[in-house]
């Protein structure tokens, strides 16, 4: 014979799951429909990436105000 407290505990757990399922149904979120173009493949212009990488904007530390002379080594 099962312990009455175990039956109560199992009943409580079952009720909790049922309650959670009802809560989920009540809180259903409508997903927005995005344009299908967002999920399609497209060519990447690597020439533009290369030009941007090689430009002085990426290599000139003065543009970013990177003064490492005042840094202390750990």
Strand content: under 5%
Secondary structural class: mainly alpha
Number of helices: 3
Number of beta strands:
0
Low-pLDDT stretches: none
In N-to-C order, the SSE pattern is: HHH
Oligomeric state of this protein? single chain
What features would you describe in this structure?
The chain is mostly helical and 74 residues long. It has a domain at 45-74. Helix content is 49%, strand content 0%. The protein has helices spanning 4-26, 46-54, 56-59.
List the helices and strands and how they pair.
Blueprint: H1 4-26, H2 46-54, H3 56-59
Structure summary:
With 74 residues, the protein is mostly helical. The protein has helices at 4-26, 46-54, 56-59.
Features:
about 70 residues, mainly alpha
């Amino acid at each position: 014979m099962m312990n009455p407290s175990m039956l109560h505990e199992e009943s409580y757990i079952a009720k909790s799951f049922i309650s959670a399922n009802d809560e989920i149904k009540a809180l259903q979120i409508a997903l927005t429909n995005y344009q299908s173009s967002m999920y399609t493949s497209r060519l990447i212009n690597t020439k533009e990436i290369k030009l941007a990488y090689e430009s002085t904007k990426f290599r000139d530390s003065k543009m970013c105000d990177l003064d490492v002379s005042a840094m202390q080594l750990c």
